[in-house]
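Query form — protein Profilin

QUESTION: What is the three-dimensional structure of this chain?
INPUT:
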Amino acid sequence: MSWQAYVDTNLVGSGKIKSAAILGRQGGVWATSSGFNLTPEEQATLLAAHDNTAQTQASGIRLAGVKYLTISVDERSINGKKGVDGCVIVRTKQAILIGTYTTPSQQSEAAVVVEGLADYLIGVGY
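ANSWER: The structure tokens for Profilin are given below.
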């Protein structure tokens, strides 16, 4: 399966994720949903976000020009909120998965989708 298919089918295709992207941990966008454009600055911040959890908690995360307050962050996952909408970001061995959601989807539903794909990718070496 292509990286774009993971975004289109597994993430956005779930109906719980509005927009999504997969970044390589060495840099570069592997796949993204239509119109979800991460700037080079946003990509650089995402690559460092899990390693500097205090900074990520204090500063929040910006995705495609939208700023999310950081609700929780650890070495694997970041959860952000903007009003009733939010984002889930999960780091695997080689990639960073990003999913945003809007009402009526909830954080718990979005997290199951993004975390589930992350678990699968980790299991196959990514």
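ADDITIONAL NOTE: The CA atoms of residues 94 and 113 lie 18 Å apart.
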